[in-house]
Amino acid sequence: MVEEKMELNHFMNYLGFKITKIEAGNIEGSLKIEPQHRQQIGFIHGGVIATLADLVAGFAAYTLVGNKQTVVTAELKISYLNPGVGDTAFCRGFVLKAGQKLIFSEAEIFANNDNKEVLIAKASGTFAVIDVPA
Q1: Closest CA to 78 of 48, 114, 98
Q2: Are the beta carbons of 33 and 52 closer than 8 angstroms?
Q3: Which domains does the chain have, with CATH numbers?
Q4: d(Cα 31, Cα 106) in Å, to the nearest integer?
Q5: DSSP summary character for residue 17
Q6: 24: closest CA among 1, 55, 52?
Q7: Is the pLDDT of residue 5 over 80?
């Protein structure tokens, strides 16, 4: 179910983001950092980092909803902790609390630079559970 939803996420696929682990309430993935993912001085662009956080936190929430439901981002807050320097971004999203109408998730984004992972951002999000239109 989650894999099918990911195939339909055109923006995620356009970026080149790949999911590497799917468990109930947990998602991990990575992105090979290409020139188009960087800002003017070479760091991973903040918008790309925020997108990765939204993807993993949202898909972590999505793993916990019913077949005729989906989630949409209601709120996302991100803190940038270190410059995004590296050739790969590793991301993980996990659910803190799942309710019937709202799911609260967090995300951590790491940059891999010379085989060392550095936490570059942490995010929290609220995802609204909605019924899939017929």
Answers
A1: 48
A2: no
A3: 2-131 (3.10.129.10)
A4: 18
A5: -
A6: 1
A7: no
